[in-house]
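Ticket reopened. Same input as before:
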Amino acid sequence: MSPLSGGRYGEGAEATASSEDRELAARFWERVRLFASRRLGDVSLGEDLAQETLHRVSAALREGRVDNLQALPAFVFQTARNLCLQRHRSAARESSALGRWRAEQPAEAEGADVLQALVGAERAAAVRRALSLLEPGDRTLIEQLYYEEAASAVVAVRLRITPEALRVRKHRVLRRLAVLLGDREQDVTS
Amino acid sequence: MSSGDLTCEQVERDQLDLKYLHGRLSPERAEPFEAHFFGCDRCWDLVRMGQEVRATRPVLGARPTRPWWLAAAAVLVGALGIGLWRASPGNETVAPDNLRAGPAPSALDVRALAGGTGPTAIWNIVPGAASYRVRLFTGDGGLVTEREISDTSFAVPGDSLVTPGPHYWQVQALDRMGRELARSGLIEAAGAVPRPAP
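Engineering reply: fixed in the latest deploy. New output:
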């Protein structure tokens, strides 16, 4: 789903959206989508809420209700947070009426697991390819931190490095992944 | 509840990005982190990239089995220790059967020493071991300390043992993936706090 598509912005919104709206979406869409999907435990609800959030923030910017652009991230966050709270309260009121219907639906992804559903198949495939190109030691580090979910202190002991060295190495590996994915240029100093 | 008061240094130090992705942050701790990455591109990149890496988890076959395995092992050790060692509440500690019979054969040979600073355990190097998990229990099965280290010795300060009576070491050798390679029996610690006279 595009942040500019769908009913909120009207038909043909992507063609007519202002550059400010596009900048807003480029900067915050993924963050709000992740935040809302995790809070609501559902990707579709999260995307719907993310659109609503950007719509409201865009309106606030046009109406001059955001005085300090430095505070824009906090404003976006609070808007998304408040909308999530409203959704939770609405869901609680609806739950008794829809109880039987909800019980018949597949279990929604919970908490952290819903985040995996946010990544499309194509992107996941690209990340897998990039992971396969890492050095074996770097891939092991990634597997232990992100697959096994081992604590950083434990991984540091296993690799016989300090926790600080592990943090540096984690950053280096993630930067390398970003380069392999084409997300960033090769850093000639790394 | 703060919004965005977190710093990148705190995120790094506490590895909040990993804990967030693994669902290990309470709502109270998650919210300041969320507020932070809304405004911080660097920390947002950690979350975004970490999320994408986790999304590839099933295909590379390294399912996160360790967390439940570790929890199950801890429950088993705790249940065995408490069940065997507590004859009844308030009574004198009774040495568990396995200690009376001597330690079970193991590739991990643990020796207890009364070191200069306090009880010390030393053990042999286990081939393939990347780390060793060493635990010290009280006589009634309470866990005094647990560490995962790369050395083959571990000492606790004598004044840190407040429970009188025997204490017992147990050591596990772990490979680089955290899987157990060998486990010692329960070895009585030397130099523990003596039981007060009746």
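The first strand of chain B starts at residue 110 and ends at 114. Helices of chain B lie at 8-14, 16-21, 27-39, 41-54, 57-60, 66-85, 97-100. Please confirm and we'll close it.
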